[in-house]
Specification:
The structure is a homodimer. Chain A is mainly α. The first copy, chain A, is built from 10 helices and 2 strands. The structure holds a DNA duplex (30 and 30 nucleotides).
Chain lengths: ~230, ~230
DNA sequence: GAACTAATACTCGATTTCGAGTAATCGAGA
DNA sequence: TCTCGATTACTCGAAATCGAGTATTAGTTC
């Protein structure tokens, strides 16, 4: 899968929109908003115009007319080309068929959990759960509304998917909080002790492992087993 | 939450790494790799060096020495500053406590489902499910391995979380495929008809709604109810 | 009809991001 | 001891990203 010439997902939305009819960039942006697509695809004006320029440069779209309305800036209306339709189809197939590794911010945070005390982590994760729950509620309200208007699900599957992901995040986070609270998370006893040593007695994190028994006691046998830079 | 002066998650990892001990950039990169943090935080050499420079410019880290090994390029060793520790703590709190809206590529794809035929979509989603299942298996193997080495969960929660997300994606996608296959997804009958009209008879998508009864028949009452640019 | 607010329609350039490329050295095998 | 691939350690510039700012007009309210 050679790298896409214009890779911003907004470009994909532009191609999708122009697939319906020719439009000028700002019109595309309002259309995406009225259809709520801006909730699934990040819309930014700066990107919109540069992406349109890049699409034109690569022959995926072409200017079909420029209209001027009084003293307003002149609007360039673009249409999709045959190459553009191919690119869109290829792109959509890739988006649907080939998952691409994406990094969520929470993963980055979880990777550094031991930098905070277990109690602080629990506090923060609880806060996150609350915020996520609020989002779930908002999504569910919207969905109920659309369903009651008989607006077909096919037009909002992306929002359903989003809801599924947020719910999964809540479920995982709840479970993690519980595991930390009850100390059933393997390593959390160690975590508490190590954190205290660093925080209260000013030991450098890197020195903790030089004399594990001193800082952690002997109840943590795996500490002696694992190599310092274990997988 | 004012915008972060250096926003790349890699910068967060750099601060986290230098929190343990002073290092030079390449050393940070290998450490992230041996610990598997590069699986949760995107590591790219170009970004690494520019991010280190930006962190230094903003006083979050400082060069403590430069060593030269024979004819090799000279290595600059950096240490975290007090301001850097604050920034790291603040950042971690934000990552854990305040979910930020992230856009997954699949959402973009789902937003344009009707551009393909239902059959093609099912085919592609099945392909995606297979790829995701392979990832689940890999993750579970790794987890079993780490568990058998008694490597504490606290050091790989981020991978657990990743696994939870992938599983949720599979579950949702499976359900969606089923709904499309059985035509129980509201709108999918409409979808089939609209797609045929566009594909087989060359009607412009934008014209479909001008005479809905003609293209869709009368069994789809909601088509007459909803405004053309419905929410 | 004056004064605002909202909507329209972009522009700009400073920063970020990226990944391919480079160049030296190390180590293992033939 | 020679070779060759892996590892170390970065550099560079093209391209993308962003969001605040600008200028005009339409609509609304008093």
């Amino acid at each position: 899968m050679a790298k896409r010439k214009v890779a911003n997902p907004l470009a994909f939305a532009v191609l999708g929109s122009l697939g319906e009819r020719p439009m000028h960039p700002y019109e595309i942006s309002t259309m995406l908003k009225t259809r709520g697509k801006d909730l699934s695809i990040k819309l930014n004006y700066g990107s919109l115009y540069s992406v349109v320029a890049a699409l034109e440069k690569n022959g995926f779209i072409e200017a079909v007319e420029t209209v001027r309305d009084g003293n307003r800036p002149e609007k360039t209306v673009y249409a999709i080309t045959a190459a553009g339709r191919d690119e869109f189809a290829d792109w959509l197939a890739e988006l649907l068929g080939s998952p691409e590794r994406e990094f969520s911010q929470l993963e980055a945070g979880l990777a550094y959990l031991p930098a905070f005390s277990p109690d602080r982590v629990v506090e923060l994760l609880d806060q996150r759960i609350e915020a996520l729950a609020a989002e779930v509620e908002k999504l569910e309200t919207t969905h109920a509304e659309m369903a009651s208007h008989k607006f077909p699900r096919i037009f909002w599957v992306e929002s359903e998917f989003r809801l599924a992901l947020v719910k999964a995040e809540i479920t995982y986070t709840r479970q993690l909080v519980r595991a930390i609270r009850t100390d059933e998370l393997e390593g959390s006893a160690f975590w508490r002790k190590g954190f205290e040593a660093v925080e209260k007695y000013g030991i450098q994190p890197a020195d903790l492992f030089k004399d594990p028994v001193k800082y952690f006691g002997e109840e943590l046998p795996w500490l002696q087993e694992i190599p310092p830079e274990a997988k």
